[in-house]
Write a structure and sequence with these properties.
It contains two helices and no strands. The chain is mainly α. Helix 1 packs antiparallel against helix 2.
Length: about 80
C-alpha cells in the first residue's frame, strides 16, 4: 500500500516485488516437498524478505530526507489528502 498512497517510490516497489516473488517461490517449494528442512528454509527466507522490504523502506525514506528530489520518483499521487485531522 505505500506505493499507491504515494508514500514510497520505485525503489521500494522493485525490492518488494522481487522479495515477494522470492518468498512465494520458497513457499511453493515447501508445499511441493514433504521435508521439514524445506519448511525451515521458508522461515529463513521470510526473515530475508522482511529485511529487504524494511531496508528498502528505510533507504527510500533516508534518500527523501537527504535528497528531496527523490520524492518526485513516486509514480503515484496519494489517493486522498494525508492531512486528515
Amino acid at each position: 500500500a505505500p506505493l499507491p498512497l504515494g508514500l514510497l517510490g520505485p525503489l521500494y516497489a522493485v525490492c518488494a516485488i522481487g522479495a515477494g516473488v522470492w518468498f512465494l517461490r520458497s513457499v511453493a517449494q515447501s508445499l511441493a516437498a514433504d521435508d521439514p528442512s524445506v519448511d525451515y528454509r521458508v522461515f529463513k527466507v521470510s526473515i530475508g524478505y522482511l529485511f529487504i522490504v524494511f531496508g528498502a523502506m528505510l533507504v527510500e525514506c533516508v534518500l527523501r530526507a537527504v535528497w528531496p528530489e527523490v520524492a518526485a520518483w513516486a509514480p503515484f499521487v496519494p489517493l486522498w489528502p494525508m492531512d486528515i485531522p
